[in-house]
Amino acid sequence: xxxxxxxxxxxxxxxxxxxxxxxxxxxxxxxxxxxxxxxxxxxxxxxxxxxxxxxxxxxxxxxxxxxxxxxxxxxxxxxxxxxxxxxxxxxxxxxxxxxxxxxxxxxxxxxxxxxxxxxxxxxxxxxxxxxxxxxxxxxxxxxxxxxxxxxxxxxxxxxxxxxxxxxxxxxxxxxxxxxxxxxxxxxxxxxxxxxxxxxxxxxxxxxxxxxxxxxxxxxxxxxxxxxxxxxxxxxxxxxxxxxxxxxxxxxxxxxxxxxxxxxxxxxxxxxxxxxxxxxxxxxxxxxxxxxxxxxxxxxxxxxxxxxxxxxxxxxxxxxxxxxxxxxxxxxxxxxxxxxxxxxxxxxxxxxxxxxxxxxxxxxxxxxxxxxxxxxxxxxxxxxxxxxxxxxxxxxxxxxxxxxxxxxxxxxxxxxxxxxxxxxxxxxxx
Length: 429
Description:
It is a single chain. By secondary structure, this protein is mainly alpha-helical. It has one domain: Ammonium transporter fold (Orthogonal Bundle). It is 71% helix and 1% strand. Strands 1-2 form a two-stranded antiparallel sheet. A hairpin with a 2-residue loop joins strand 1 and strand 2. Helix 2 runs antiparallel to helix 8 and helix 8 packs parallel to helix 10. The longest helix is centred in the last third of the chain and has 33 residues. The protein is globular, with a radius of gyration of 23 Å. About 4% of the residues have low confidence.
């Protein structure tokens, strides 16, 4: 009997780690975030790559695809080496601003380590896909004129000194998180940072040769619409996955994401119809992206009414912002990153404070909080993100320009980046 008891005790001791993990691990949450991870990566490769690739001229299509692909590669490496640790680690006395390096090379991420109800490895990979798509969005601001080597160096430095700190401020326990900033899936962290960086880059580099007098029409709208459809579907993982659980927050986030995308696309198409006499496919899919980007920070906090109004607002505000940037200011933000993502991120971050109200179908405020004070917090987050991103991006551009030069020569730009940067063509002519 004693021998039998010893065997039972030994088995129980061996099972303790498994039991402990089972107490925290939720297989349903894990399955959903694994799916969401695939969806968000799908947004960049192939979604964003095809969306951007179709919008440029034939001679530059391969360069844009290559830029998106290589950003995914290099940011993945950086994320493992130090990005995750700086974004979500504890930075000691500097924790309000940046994480530490305790998790460099994912030193403490094991098969058994958990992040909430998820394996930490799953959380690491999910957040990695956000770090990938953010600098990839910036590509639209300098498309058709930046050297490939300069693009790689800029992306590495930018995610290190802009994305990782702001990610920590908002999602890693930094000062904006302490203030109570509402950013469910990346209005500040992803869209404002990418939009501001894109327009700063466009201004520093200057317009493409011939802009704005020479028409620079998309070479393949079929490719662009295909990429846009992939973005729409992938965004369900982007916003729904940010609940980090398979629950009602995820379900509502997906619902309002879809509604906002539909409203943004419809509003943009109607405004084009009124202004130009015909709605365009390009405008319609751009309105869809505006709706998606604008709902992102509010997606887990608002209800269907909020999704409708935010989507309608996104379609209208981003439509007029695009015309103002291109036609009035004559800034060659090539693929409209700032007026769509930057303006959309700002609008959605502010409106999150309004439509979180329970009376408007949202999740409601915490005790002692009111709309006015929350709007103040949201505005603080928006201003801080804009200023920090603009200043640091400008400095990075000047450093890269001094080291490698930012822009291809005029002759290379005329020839096209596919040939002179990669010695290949996107199409056999």
